[in-house]
């Protein structure tokens, strides 16, 4: 079924002017960008977004990175969109990412890994709602 997922083009990618390059991979993979905006995340937004990782040793570093430059937040739509986008992104650590994936092509490290995508339908709903009003998503 058609499914929506939440995506972030992260600071390492926006800083290198790779927004269009990442979007080209997304669109070639058959995913449709149905909402998109470039924002400077606040510390509070980043801490809320990554709340499940609060106890991890890399949490502080992760939040600092996510507010270090603008990000592009997106809603993507496609058949099996959540799993599809995870394939397109590649493994979290670019060293393990498959050829042709966004992270293989562009990510710098496990922390500066260019993109985020939701991992399940319930988290996709929550993540989309944190950044977009219903009327900002046009399928
Ligand atoms: P993301 O999919 O956005 O969700 C959690 C993020 O934590 C993940 O991508 C990585 O960028 C980041 N992350 C995971 N492991 C590490 C690590 N060992 N050091 C720094 N960042 C990490």
TrEMBL record:
It comes from the Bacteria. SMART domains: NDK. InterPro entries: NDK-like_dom (IPR034907), NDK-like_dom_sf (IPR036850), Nucleoside_diP_kinase (IPR001564), Nucleoside_diP_kinase_AS (IPR023005). ATP binds at residues 10, 58, 86, 92, 103, 113. Its cofactor is Mg(2+). PROSITE patterns: NDPK (PS00469), NDPK_LIKE (PS51374). The active site is at 116 (pros-phosphohistidine intermediate). It is an enzyme of class 2 (transferase). It is found in: Cytoplasm. Coiled coil: none annotated. One of its GO terms (molecular function) is nucleoside diphosphate kinase activity. Its EC number is 2.7.4.6. Keywords: ATP-binding, Cytoplasm, Kinase, Magnesium, Metal-binding, Nucleotide metabolism, Nucleotide-binding, Phosphoprotein, Transferase. SUPFAM superfamilies: Nucleoside diphosphate kinase, NDK (SSF54919). It catalyses: a 2'-deoxyribonucleoside 5'-diphosphate + ATP = a 2'-deoxyribonucleoside 5'-triphosphate + ADP; a ribonucleoside 5'-diphosphate + ATP = a ribonucleoside 5'-triphosphate + ADP. It holds the Pfam family NDK. Belongs to the NDK family. HAMAP family: NDP_kinase. Homotetramer. Major role in the synthesis of nucleoside triphosphates other than ATP. The ATP gamma phosphate is transferred to the NDP beta phosphate via a ping-pong mechanism, using a phosphorylated active-site intermediate. This is Nucleoside diphosphate kinase.
